């Protein structure tokens, strides 16, 4: 038995999605059984002429498949400018705070990298001079430990935080662009 094309399946799914119907509601509209709608969508049955005729009024209301959605759905009231402006200001404050935190974390990473790069030479220099007294030996041991601590890489949590901050900055930047678009760039 030959399989039918996916066109009917796509049509039913498009109609249901556009009008917010589940299979049972579409079946009720068409006067068919939900099992028949499921069978058509899964490709086990074909779309009959009678069902196609019943779908015609709904199909005529569908926009062409390749037309992008309207910026504001029909029937949707205009947004409250004050609410959007408030959210824009909140986003700007959060973006500034996350940006500062991100910059500080990046600076900590850079400094740790500088110390790690300098550590071998600094430790070699410290070890080159033999301590003359016990106090100098103690200081040399302390200095070696201190240099090693300075050169420690940032912990994995810092890397995780850096990635999360970058994601938040990107999300807030996108949200600000969308809010500027929604308000026509007012207050941006």
From TrEMBL:
SUPFAM superfamilies: lambda repressor-like DNA-binding domains (SSF47413). Residues 12-55 form the HTH cro/C1-type domain. It comes from the Bacteria. CDD domains: HTH_XRE. Gene3D superfamilies: lambda repressor-like DNA-binding domains. GO terms for molecular function: DNA binding. This is HTH cro/C1-type domain-containing protein. It comes from Hymenobacter daecheongensis DSM 21074.
